[in-house]
Amino acid sequence: xxxxxxxxMELPNNTGFEEDSDYRDFEGTDVKDMxxxxxxxxxxxxxxxxxxxVSKTLPCAxxxxxxxxxxxxxxxxxLELTEAGLRVVGYDFDQTDDRLQTPYHExxxxxxxxxxxxxxxxxxxxxxxxxxxLKRETQS
Length: 140
Prior knowledge:
GO terms for molecular function: kinase regulator activity; protein kinase A binding. The protein is of the alpha+beta class.
């Protein structure tokens, strides 16, 4: 049985399965304030990374926000959140490099999955524990 650093009972209920609903309605609707969207992204996956927060230095607008993330491997990234999705724009907090041509990810889950094996493990373990807890609830 694998060990995990997080208590799955503290996980938000929307751990991954409805992730696409956040982005599905973007086209043809009013764009939400990206800062609020960025805060929601951070709250969803903070348990599975070392550090993550919306940048206070880089400008947030209706159509763009920046998120700083440090993986459990201690790698730091600056992420850009737009209608197109999330992508790495820098390799340190609050750093952007216009020359970077990194791909967009529809969800923070797929982006972190591609950057951090430790994220993948923690997230998977949390999901398993959550499912085991649900199974116990339905059996009692």
